[in-house]
Amino acid sequence: DADVTQTPRNRITKTGKRIMLECSQTKGHDRMYWYRQDPGLGLRLIYYSFDVKDINKGEISDGYSVSRQAQAKFSLSLESAIPNQTALYFCAAEGGNEQFFGPGTRLTVL
Amino acid sequence: QQQVKQSPQSLIVQKGGISIINCAYENTAFDYFPWYQQFPGKGPALLIAIRPDVSEKKEGRFTISFNKSAKQFSLHIMDSQPGDSATYFCAASKSDYKLSFGAGTTVTVRA
Question: pLDDT (tens digit, 9 = 90+) per residue, A74-106?
Fold first, then answer.
């Protein structure tokens, strides 16, 4: 079984819609992260959480929000999706200096 | 602006050849330098990591070389195999803090 799971794996939505990407981990790690991956730009940090009560903005947080519902769950929301949010989104959980990534969600905003 | 600059963006190597990917950083407080490997359709996974108290670390065919004075580090893939075809990301962090990733290098190994 995967240690970090993401749902949905693929999503197509329209401009202006609200969308939530979900992430769950079974490793019991406190630290969790949301990244987006774009060709030529690598992995850019959107939000991170070092424990359930700790939420921090990353380098590209505008247009996104997050919720840490429990140690195991960290959700990313796009309040009003726009086309330049089309990207591959990864969630990660960190333990022992190693980040364990989920399989990614491919989001397309039309 | 990216705190870690990675080059080249892509490279092609023949089977059995050496792949070299370079990264440079500015923040002298960085004290942890991992490399992540990503196969198509998968999330990145930790490949190998180094701390600045050593200049080189080797795990199998993968070697990190670290030059603290130049603020550069590199990944060498020896005897490259088609199964090594992937995207490689360098990264850096300070004092158990969040990682800053490079832009990635797509490596293609031709059989």
Answer: 999 999 999 999 999 999 999 888 999 999 999
By residue count, chain A amounts to 110
C-alpha distance from A71 to closest chain B C-alpha (Å):
18
C-alpha B35/C-alpha A8 separation (Å) is 27
- Chain B residues close to A42, C-beta within 8 Å: 2, 6, 89, 101-104
Helix (H) or strand (E) holding A95: strand A87-95
Least CA distance to A96: which residue of chain B?
B96
Put simply, the answer to whether B43 touches A43 (Cβ < 8 Å) is: no
Query: Do A55 and A65 touch, CB atoms closer than 8 A?
Result: no
**Which pLDDT tens digit goes with each residue over B1-54?**
679 999 999 999 999 999 999 999 999 999 999 999 999 999 999 999 999 999
Question: What is residue A85's three-state secondary structure?
Answer: helix
Q: Spell out the residues 6+ positions from residue B53 whose beta carbon is closer than 8 angstroms to its own.
A: none
Cβ-in-10-Å burial (0-12, 13-18, 19+) of B25 comes to: buried
| Type and span of the H or E element at B50 | strand B45-50
